[in-house]
Amino acid sequence: MFDLSTILAAFLSISLLGAFFGISLAIAGKYLVVKKEQKLYDLERSLPGVNCGACGYPGCAGFAEGLFLGKAEVTGCPPASAEVKARLAEIMGIVVDVNQEKKVAQIHCCGGTGLAEFAFEYDGVKDCNALYSMYQGNKVCKYGCLGFGSCIGACPTEAIEYDGKGLVRIIADKCISCEKCIAVCPTGVLKMIPVSADYVVSCNSNDKGAATKKACKVGCIACKICDKKSPEGGFKIENFLASIDYSVKGERASAAEACPAKCIVANK
Amino acid sequence: MSYIAIIITYIIVSNFILTQFLGLCPFLGVSKNVESATGMGFAVTFVAAIAALITWAVQNYILIPFNITFLQTVAFILIIASLVQLVEMVVQKVAPPLYKALGIFLPLITVNCGVMGIAVIATRTGYNAMESFVAGIAVGLGFLLAIFIMATIRERLDLEDIPKPFKGLPIAFIVTGLMAMSFMAFDRALLNNLLG
To answer: Which of A95, A124, A253, B124 gives 20 to 30 Å between its CA and that of A166?
Structure first.
């Protein structure tokens, strides 16, 4: 049906058409090229490029454009290091104090397997939010880590891992402060702390002391011993839970030592 | 067939969007505000007109003489894709805000069945070069008309209290259906009466 000449004609005509359009477009592209602003290009190059979205813009290119148009702040990129922010400020020609300390997520619960009491056995989907939708989790304590690691899936840099004892562990070096884990965690057990923090009150329970003691062996019972032992440590007790004011740079080791529940732990 | 008849046919009687249901994707995608809808309409008009003309030339001077009309679809898509690239460059250069507003739908004109449709229909109907070109423009203008009406309606719909399940696309489809029904009033009989 098809002889060689038809095949040849088909081949040649389509190739030539394609070549013709290709060359015309290349020529048109020369004349119609849109120059990307050098500044915008530099900004985009300087950003971390993880496209985490923590700045509220769609990816790093979006943030660069926001910066370029003056809508975004140089400090608006949580994962950027101080050097990166300084470089961004330099490109934009502005002076910004970039030495705010980096914050990282930390788990405020140490009630792992064998320490926290369970209210019921859960056999459903292995997802913290699914579990939380049932009586706010299977632990007696409604504030602690549920241990299914929804935050692990949310983390763009694999900075969170299971610790093998029913909790998760955060690798501070990998954390880029995007707070995605905090957004996904149903109990709010993850909180941002300065990366240089020496101790953490590793409990999130707002229950009264007696209730906490029943629910978990390592829960903060709001006994205020930490504040008495380390008055310079910036401990404060609110809602039956101790917390540390990290802007106070006092000694906290003796409080950690004295804590009856041993829930003030070294930040590592 | 006179040019007026062609124009009335493709703008009103067999409007590609509302009676043939071709090219609905950009029609629903870019009709959220009048400005970008109009821009899209003109972009489609441009591509459809030039595509109709060039496909006519390719059909009559390359495909038919070499007896390779079976390559029509491939050749036409090649032409339309190249044209869309060109339009994209022009729009990006001349009107960056429009380029942003049109977004993905601009390159998607490549696969707009309306543009492909007029190229194929024009060759099937046996239009000459000028008739093809005019038909291309008319199809584009028909698209422009439909998307303009749609955009004005949707701008008003944004302010209305629409039940949640109908918000956004569902109500847009219902509106499209109603518009299509009203366009059924324009049929070929009307055309014959008008033009004698």
So the answer is: A253
